[in-house]
Design a protein that fits this description.
- Helix content of chain A is about 60%, strand content about 15%.
- Chain A is of the alpha/beta class and about 1150 residues long.
- In chain A, the strands form 7 sheets. Chain A has a 6-stranded mixed β-sheet. In chain A, strands 6-8-9-11-10 form a 5-stranded mixed β-sheet, covered by helices on one side.
- Chain A is flat.
- Chain B is an alpha+beta fold.
- In chain B, the strands form 2 sheets. In chain B, strands 8-1-2-10-9 form a 5-stranded mixed β-sheet. Chain B has a 5-stranded mixed β-sheet with strand order 3-6-7-5-4.
- At the A-B interface, strand 21, strand 22 and helix 31 of A face strand 4, strand 5 and strand 7 of B.
C-alpha cells in the first residue's frame, strides 16, 4: 500500500475533493442542458482522471468506483444508455461515493469500500431504457454486497475477498467448536440442571468463540453479524458468570441462535432478522425465569457448594486459552507426539505459574504471622495465586491430565473462598494453602508420585478449613442474593464491562512478558553458543599472528635501515671516489666508457665535462632506489598492519558482544529454583517436626540455565542438611533464645564477574569436635587434633564423611562431596562460614560467563600454563624480605598469606636461582588468599576450556586444557587443587582421607510394592548396610549406572521390566552380572524357581521371609565375613 | 599343381596351427574360467579370514594390535606435560583438534627400552569403546594378516620377554611369521584394563 507516502496521499485526496464540486456542477449543467457535449466530456475526463490516478496511488476502491461510472458514461456517449434522470442519479451517487470515500480516508476512518462500490454499481445498472424501478438502493444488499463483488486489490483495512475468506475460514473453526460444545450441552442438559464447573467451562468455550466472531466481523465491517454476535454473547456471559441453573429450553434456544449466527456467516443476505429477534427475546424471557429459579436454588444449596462464581471471576489469560480449548475439544485428534509436545509446553508454563504463586505465597507467609483480617493487598496476592492455579487447572485439563485439573479445581475453590468469602486468615490456614500448593507443584512435576489419597485428603482439609469459616460467616451474614433488577443492570453492562475486564486481564497477563518470545531447541542454542565461543577464541588467534606480523615488520624496518646505510656508505665512499680513482683501477672500464663516448658521439665533451658512470655507479644508484622502495613498502605494510589491527579489535568487540548476548539467551533468574527449594524445605521440615521458613533475596540474579540446573541438587542437599543437621529442635531454639521458626536464607548477588550465592541457616553451626572425632576415627589419628577449623571444615566435603547417623532426609545420593563437585563443574567455588550457635553459611561463587575463560598465560621452562584470571586478585613483584621461603609465607600489606612456588607445585623441582624480586600472583580462591610465585608471564588470552581427552578424566590440579590458534595446548591450572595435590604428594599419601572411610555395603531392593521396599530397607539399614530402592527392573537398571550394590533383592512381577527380564539383562553386562541376586517373591512354584536360577539368580526366597533368613542369605552370597572391615557404616542413605 | 601344393600345405599348415590353438582354447575355456573363479574365491576367502593387525616394536619386542582398534598412526606432535600424573602418562597432545593423552607402555609395564633411532617418535591412536589414547611405540613395522582359524598362536612364555609379565596378561598369544615373533595384544582386555582406566 502506498499509505506510507502520507503527504503525497493526502495531497491526492485533496485534489480529488476539488474535482467533486466541478463534477457536481457539470452534472447539474448537463441535467439542465442535456446535449452540452463539452460538459459531458469534462465530467467524463474528471472521472477518468480519478479512476487512473487512484489506481496509480493505490486507492483501488476509489478507482473501481470511478471505473464503474466511466463505463456508464462511455455507454451513454455511445448511445447504449440513455442520459435519463437515472443516469444523473447514478452520477450523483457516484460523486457522493467519491466524497464519502475521500472524507473517510482523510479522517482516517475505515471506509466501507464494498458498500460504496455496490452503491455505484447499483445506480449505474439502473441507467438505461426499461429501468422503471425505484431508485433507492436497498440497505441490506449494500451491506452484504461486499462478498459478491470480487475486488482486485483494495486497501488492507477494507473487507476484500481475501480477508473475507480468511474470516470465514477462521469462523468455520469456531463454528465447529461451537457445534461440538452445543452437542455436549444438548446431551447433558436434560430438564433443569445446575451449572456445574464442567458445563460452565463449555459455556465459556462457546462464549469465547462467539466473542472472537464478534470481534473479527466488526473488524472487517460485517456490522450486522457483529451486532448479533454481541447479543448472543451477552446471553452467554450471563450464563457463564451469573446463572446457576439452565434447562433444555435454553439450550435449544441457544442452539437456534448459534445456528442463525452460522447461517448469517454463510450467506449474510439470507439473514432472517425477525427470527433472530424472536430467538433473542425468548432467550431473555427464559433467562429471567432461570435467574429466579437459580436464586432460589442457590440459597438452599449454598452451604454445601463452593462459593458462587461472580462476575469478578478471573479469566485465564486469553492468549493461552483458545488453542487449549480447541485441544480439549479435539483431544482425541492429537497424536502421541503432539501430546508429548503439549505436555512439555504445559510443564514449562506450569513452572512459571508455580513460581508466581510461590512468590505470592511468600508474601502471605511473611505478612500473616497471627490471626488477622485480610487486607486488600492480601486479597490481591490470593487473587494472583488463584489465577495461577486456575491457569494450571485449565491447561492440565486441555492436555488431559485430569488428575491435576481436578485437584487444582479443589484448590481453586478454596482460593475462591479465601478471596471472596474469608474475612480473616491465620498461619495454619496459610500453611494448609502452602501445603496444597506444594502438592500441586509435585503433581505438575511428577504426577505419578502423588497418590490420589493425598489429593483427596488435601481436598478434605481445604474443604474443612473453608467450611468452618464459611458457616461462621453465614451465621452473621445473609446469603448473597442477586436481585433481578441488579442482574438486569449487570446484564446490560455485561457486554462492555466484560470486554473491559478482558482487556484489563489481557494487559495483566501480558505484563510479565513484554517482548515476544520464540521457542527454540536448546541443543541448537547450545550449538550456537559454542560456535560463538569458538569464534571469540578464533579471533584471539589473530593476535598471535599479528604479533608475528609486527615482528616481521620490525625486522623489515631494521633491514631497510641497514640497507640504507650501506647504500649511503657506498655512495659517499665509493661513488665519489669512483669518479677519479676507479678509472685508474679499472682501466678496462675507462676503455669501455671511451667506447661508449665514441659510439654515442659525445666526443666533443671533455672527460671532466661529463659525469662518467661506471657500472658500480649504476648499481649504487639502483640500490639506493631499491632501498627507498623497500622503505616505502615497509610504510605500506605498517599501514596495512594497523588497518588489520583496527579491524581485528573491532571484530573482537562485536564478537564479544555477540557472545555476551548469546549467553544471555540462556540466562534465567534464580527464581526458577525457589519453588522447588521451598517445597523441599517444607517437606523435610514437616518430616523432622521442625519449623523453618525460607527467605530468598536477589531472586532476579541471572545465571546460565545450565548452572541453575547444576546447582539445584546441591541446594536441595544443603537444605536437607541444614534442616537435619544444622537447625535445632524447637525446644533447643527456645532455650537458646532464638526465634521459634528457623530461617534458611538464600541470597544471590552479583560481585564483579561472579554471582555469589549465600546459603545460610540460623542453626547451631558446624560441630567441630564431632568432625574432629570423626576424622580421628577415619585414620587421621592424632593429626586430627592439630587440624584447624578451616581444615576441619574442608573435611565435610570428603566423600563419605558425615557425623550424623541415618538420614532418610539426605537421600538422592548427593553428599557434600557431590555438592562441591557440582559447583566445581561449573567453575565455581564453595566456602563455608560457620559460627557456633549462630549458624552456618555456604557461599557459592559462580563465574558469570561459562565457556570462554580469560586466563593468564604463565611460562615455566618450555611449557605454558593458564591460570583463570577470575581467581587472580593482583600480580606484583614481592620484596624478598617479605617472603619467607622456609615457612612458605608471604607478607602482603602486613598480612601473612601462604606462599607457594608454581614450579614446586607442578613437581618441576625447585626454582632456579632465587630471584630477588619474584613475580607473585595473589589469588583469592575458596575464600582464602594465597600467593604463588611464577617465573614468567606471557600474556592473557581468552580460551575455551576442553577436557583432557577420554583417557584422562581428572588430573589433580588441572581443570582442563585449551587448544591455541597455533595448535599448541595450554593446560589450565586449578591452583587450590594443585596445592592440595602437592600437599598429598609431600605427605606421601598420608591424607587421602577417602581411602580410609569404610565403604558401605549396599543392598538394592527391587520391588514394585512400596511397603515391601520400606520393610526390606529398614531391615537392610538395621543391619548397618545401605539400602537402595528401585521400583521396577528398568528403574534398577538406571540405578545400576550410579551405584554398585553388593547384592540385589529382586521381585518377579513388576511393571515395565519384570524380574526375569532384569536378570536376563544384567547377565549381559560386564560388571553387574557378578552381583549376587536374591529372588524375593511370593511365587513359590518350582517353575519360577528354576527359571530364576537358570537366569543366574543365586538364591530364592519366598515372601514374606524371615529377617534372619534374608540376612543370612545376603551374608552367605556376599561372603561378608571375609570383608569384616565393612562395618555398619554411619552413613546410611535410603534412595527414595 | 606342384606350386600350389606347398603353398596350400603351408597355408594349410598355418591355418591348421591357428585352428588347433583356437580349438584348444575353446576346449579349455570352461576350466580356465573355473580355475579363475576358484582362485578368486580362495583369495577372497583368505582375505576374509585374515584379520589385519598393525605390528610395531615396543621395547625389545614386536607386538601387534588389531587394525580396528587403531584409529591412526603417525609421528607424535609436541607433548604438553601435566602435573600429578604417573610417569607412564607422558602428557597430552593435540591431534586433529582433539586432546589426547600419551601413554608409554614401556614405562607402564617396565619393558626393556630400545635404543632410539631418529628424533621422531611414532604413536598409534588406540581406540576401544570410549577409551582413546596415543600409544607410544618405538617404530611401526607394518601390517600382518592373521588367520584366526588357521594360524595358531603359541602361548606366551614369560621368560622369553624380560620384565614383561605385567603386560603378558594382555597377550592373546604369540604369532610366528617367518622368523618374527609377534605378540598379539588383546585390544578388548586393554580397553577394559582398570590400570589404564583409573584416570578416567
Amino acid at each position: 500500500m502506498t499509505q506510507d507516502g502520507n503527504d503525497f496521499f493526502a495531497g491526492y485526496i485533496e485534489e480529488v475533493q476539488t474535482y467533486i464540486p466541478i463534477i457536481k456542477k457539470g452534472i447539474e449543467d448537463l441535467q439542465a442542458v442535456p446535449d452540452k457535449g463539452e460538459i459531458f466530456e469534462e465530467v467524463y475526463r474528471l472521472v477518468h482522471i480519478i479512476r487512473g490516478a487512484s489506481a496509480m496511488v493505490g486507492i483501488h476502491g476509489l478507482s473501481e468506483i470511478a471505473s464503474c461510472m466511466e463505463t456508464g458514461l462511455d455507454k451513454i456517449r455511445e448511445g447504449q444508455l440513455a442520459l435519463a434522470p437515472e443516469a444523473f442519479f447514478a452520477m450523483r451517487e457516484t460523486v457522493d461515493c467519491f466524497d464519502l470515500y475521500c472524507r473517510g480516508l482523510r479522517q482516517g476512518k475505515p471506509v466501507d469500500e464494498a458498500a460504496l462500490l455496490a452503491r455505484t454499481v447499483d445506480a449505474v445498472a439502473k441507467i438505461g431504457p426499461g429501468s422503471g424501478e425505484t431508485l433507492i438502493a436497498e440497505e441490506e444488499s449494500i451491506l452484504f454486497a461486499g462478498e459478491k463483488i470480487p475486488l482486485t486489490g483494495p486497501l488492507a483495512s477494507f473487507p476484500d475477498k481475501e480477508l473475507l475468506d480468511e474470516f470465514q475460514a477462521e469462523s468455520e473453526e469456531h463454528l465447529e467448536g461451537i457445534r461440538h460444545s452445543m452437542q455436549f450441552l444438548e446431551a447433558h442438559v436434560v430438564g433443569k440442571v445446575r451449572i456445574s464447573g464442567e458445563l460452565r467451562e463449555i459455556v465459556r468455550t462457546i462464549r469465547r468463540s462467539v466473542h472472537t466472531i464478534k470481534g473479527a466481523s466488526a473488524v472487517i465491517g460485517l456490522q450486522d453479524l457483529s451486532a448479533f454476535s454481541h447479543l448472543v454473547e451477552d446471553v452467554l456471559d450471563w450464563l457463564y458468570e451469573s446463572a446457576s441453573v439452565m434447562d433444555h429450553n435454553l439450550v435449544a434456544l441457544l442452539s437456534e441462535a448459534l445456528d442463525l449466527l452460522a447461517a448469517m456467516m454463510d450467506s449474510p443476505a439470507s439473514f432472517n432478522e425477525q427470527r433472530a429477534e424472536k430467538v433473542l427475546e425468548h432467550l431473555h424471557v427464559l433467562m429471567k425465569e432461570l435467574q429466579e429459579d437459580g436464586d432460589f436454588g442457590e440459597e438452599v444449596a449454598l452451604t454445601s457448594l463452593p462459593p458462587m462464581e461472580t462476575i469478578r471471576k478471573p479469566v485465564t489469560p486469553p492468549d493461552a486459552v483458545p488453542a487449549k480449548e480447541k485441544g480439549a475439544l479435539h483431544g482425541s485428534l492429537f497424536s502421541e507426539e503432539e501430546k508429548q509436545i503439549l505436555q512439555e509446553g504445559f510443564q514449562e508454563e506450569a513452572e512459571e505459574h508455580l513460581h508466581e504463586l510461590h512468590q505470592s505465597l511468600q508474601v502471605l507467609e511473611t505478612e500473616i504471622e497471627a490471626e488477622m483480617a485480610l487486607t486488600p493487598e492480601h486479597r490481591e496476592e490470593i487473587r494472583k495465586i488463584r489465577r495461577a492455579v486456575h491457569t494450571i487447572k485449565g491447561a492440565s485439563a486441555v492436555i488431559g491430565i485430569n488428575e491435576i485439573s481436578s485437584y487444582a479445581h479443589g484448590v481453586e475453590d478454596f482460593l475462591d473462598w479465601m478471596y471472596e468469602g474469608a474475612q480473616q486468615a491465620d498461619p495454619p490456614m496459610i500453611n494448609i494453602l502452602a501445603e496444597s500448593l506444594d502438592l500441586l507443584g509435585l503433581l505438575v512435576e511428577s504426577p505419578e508420585s502423588v497418590s490420589s489419597d493425598r489429593q483427596s485428603e488435601m481436598h478434605q482439609r481445604l474443604m474443612h478449613c473453608s467450611r468452618i469459616e464459611s458457616t461462621d460467616s453465614l451465621l452473621n451474614e445473609e446469603a448473597p442474593e442477586v436481585a433481578i433488577s441488579e442482574y438486569q443492570s449487570l446484564l446490560e453492562s455485561a457486554g462492555p464491562a466484560s470486554e473491559e475486564e478482558t482487556d484489563e486481564l489481557d494487559r495483566q497477563s501480558t505484563l510479565p512478558e513484554t517482548a515476544k518470545t520464540i521457542r527454540i531447541n536448546q541443543q541448537q542454542l547450545d550449538l550456537l553458543i559454542n560456535l560463538t565461543n569458538e569464534l571469540l577464541v578464533g579471533v584471539s588467534g589473530f593476535d598471535q599472528n599479528m604479533g608475528l606480523f609486527n615482528n616481521a615488520l620490525e625486522e623489515l624496518e631494521l633491514t631497510t635501515r641497514r640497507l640504507k646505510d650501506i647504500a649511503l656508505e657506498l655512495e659517499t665512499k665509493f661513488e665519489v671516489k669512483a669518479l677519479d680513482q676507479l678509472t685508474q683501477h679499472f682501466a678496462h672500464l675507462d676503455k669501455s666508457i671511451a667506447d661508449i663516448k665514441v659510439n654515442q658521439s659525445f666526443a666533443e665533451f671533455d672527460a671532466l665535462e661529463l659525469d662518467r658512470y661506471t657500472q658500480l655507479n649504476l648499481i649504487i644508484r639502483s640500490m639506493n632506489e631499491s632501498t627507498i622502495d623497500v622503505s616505502a613498502i615497509h610504510a605500506n605494510l605498517r599501514g596495512i598492519y594497523s588497518g588489520i589491527g583496527g579491524d581485528i579489535s573491532r571484530q573482537h568487540r562485536v564478537i564479544r558482544e555477540l557472545q555476551v548476548q548469546m549467553m544471555r539467551t540462556r540466562m534465567s533468574s534464580m527464581s526458577t529454583l525457589t519453588p522447588r527449594l521451598s517445597r523441599t524445605m517444607r517437606d523435610v521440615a514437616s518430616r523432622l517436626g521442625k519449623r523453618v521458613r525460607l527467605k530468598v533475596e536477589g531472586e532476579q540474579v541471572d545465571l546460565d540455565r545450565v548452572v541453575w540446573e547444576k546447582l539445584a541438587d546441591p541446594f536441595m542437599h544443603l537444605i536437607r542438611n541444614a534442616i537435619h543437621h544444622g537447625i535445632e529442635t524447637e525446644e533447643e531454639r527456645k532455650a537458646g533464645n532464638k526465634p521459634d521458626i528457623a530461617t534458611i536464607s538464600l541470597a544471590g548477588r552479583r560481585e564483579g564477574n561472579h554471582i555469589v550465592i549465600r546459603f545460610s541457616d540460623d542453626g547451631r553451626g558446624l560441630d567441630f569436635s564431632a568432625i574432629r572425632e570423626k576424622a580421628r576415627q577415619f585414620g587421621l589419628g592424632a593429626r586430627a587434633d592439630q587440624m584447624d577449623e578451616q581444615e576441619l571444615t574442608d573435611l565435610i566435603f570428603y566423600p563419605g564423611f558425615s557425623t550424623k547417623t541415618i538420614s532418610e532426609i539426605s537421600g538422592r545420593g548427593v553428599g557434600m562431596d557431590v555438592v562441591k563437585q557440582n559447583v566445581h563443574e561449573i567453575q565455581g567455588t564453595i566456602t563455608v562460614e560457620t559460627k557456633e550457635g549462630e549458624g552456618t553459611a555456604f557461599v557459592i561463587r559462580v563465574p558469570l560467563t561459562l565457556g570462554v575463560v580469560r586466563v593468564l598465560m604463565v611460562r615455566i621452562g618450555e611449557e605454558t600454563y593458564g591460570i583463570a584470571l577470575n581467581d587472580i586478585r593482583d600480580i606484583h613483584r614481592a620484596d624478598s624480605q617479605d617472603l619467607s621461603r622456609n615457612e612458605g609465607t608471604l607478607k602482603i600489606g602486613g598480612i601473612v598469606v601462604p606462599w607457594y612456588s608454581l614450579q614446586v607445585l607442578l613437581g618441576q623441582g625447585e626454582e632456579q636461582g632465587e630471584e630477588q624480586r619474584p613475580l607473585v600472583l595473589v589469588l583469592n580462591v575458596a575464600g582464602r588468599t594465597l600467593a604463588i610465585s611464577i617465573p614468567q608471564i606471557t600474556g592473557q588470552k581468552e580460551i575455551v576450556i576442553k577436557g583432557l581427552g577420554t583417557h584422562l578424566g581428572s588430573v589433580p590440579g588441572v581443570s582442563g586444557a585449551a587448544v591455541m590458534g597455533d595448535g599448541s595446548i595450554v593446560p589450565v591450572l586449578n591452583i587450590p587443587d594443585l596445592i592440595e595435590a602437592a600437599r598429598r604428594r609431600d605427605h606421601g599419601g598420608l591424607i587421602p582421607l577417602q581411602l580410609d572411610i569404610p565403604q558401605s555395603f549396599t543392598v538394592m531392593i527391587v520391588d514394585d510394592s512400596i511397603s515391601i521396599r520400606r520393610v526390606m530397607s529398614r531391615l537392610v539399614v538395621a543391619n548397618g548396610w545401605v539400602a537402595v530402592e528401585a521400583k521396577d527392573g528398568l528403574d534398577a537398571m538406571d540405578l545400576l549406572t550410579e551405584v554398585q550394590p553388593d547384592c540385589i533383592a529382586l521381585d518377579i512381577e513388576m511393571p515395565r521390566m519384570n524380574g526375569f527380564e532384569f536378570l536376563a539383562k544384567i547377565a549381559n553386562t560386564s560388571h553387574e552380572k557378578n552381583i549376587p541376586v536374591i529372588m524375593l517373591t511370593s511365587r513359590t512354584s518350582e517353575k519360577h524357581r528354576e527359571k530364576a536360577f537358570q537366569l543366574g539368580a543365586k538364591a530364592f526366597l519366598n515372601k514374606p521371609c524371615k529377617d534372619e533368613e534374608f540376612v543370612e542369605t545376603v551374608l552367605r552370597l556376599t561372603d561378608t565375613s571375609s570383608s569384616s572391615h565393612r562395618q555398619p557404616s554411619d552413613r546410611q542413605e535410603v534412595k527414595a | 599343381m606342384i606350386n600350389s601344393f606347398p603353398q596350400q600345405s603351408s597355408s594349410g599348415k598355418g591355418l591348421s596351427l591357428q585352428a588347433l590353438l583356437a580349438a584348444i582354447d575353446v576346449e579349455i575355456a570352461p576350466s580356465v574360467v573355473q580355475d579363475l573363479a576358484f582362485l578368486k574365491e580362495r583369495a577372497l576367502r583368505d582375505i576374509r579370514h585374515k584379520k589385519p593387525h598393525i605390528s610395531f616394536v615396543l621395547g625389545a619386542h614386536e607386538m601387534a594390535l588389531p587394525l580396528q582398534s587403531v584409529q591412526e598412526i603417525g609421528y607424535l606432535p609436541t607433548v604438553t606435560l601435566l602435573p600429578n600424573l604417573p610417569h607412564w602418562i607422558k602428557g597430552i597432545v593435540q591431534i586433529r583438534g582433539e586432546i589426547l593423552s600419551v601413554v608409554d607402555f614401556i614405562a607402564l609395564f617396565h619393558l626393556q627400552e630400545e635404543k632410539k633411532f631418529g628424533l621422531q617418535q611414532s604413536y598409534l591412536l588406540f581406540k576401544q569403546q570410549d577409551l582413546k589414547f596415543c600409544l607410544l611405540v618405538s617404530r611401526i613395522t607394518g601390517i600382518v594378516n592373521i588367520d584366526e582359524q588357521r594360524d595358531t598362536l603359541t602361548a606366551f612364555v614369560p621368560e622369553k620377554i624380560e620384565g614383561s609379565d605385567l603386560l603378558s596378561g594382555f597377550f592373546r598369544g604369540v604369532f610366528t611369521l617367518d622368523n618374527r615373533q609377534i605378540c598379539i595384544l588383546d585390544n578388548e582386555k586393554l580397553g577394559a584394563a582398570s590400570l589404564l582406566r583409573k584416570w578416567q
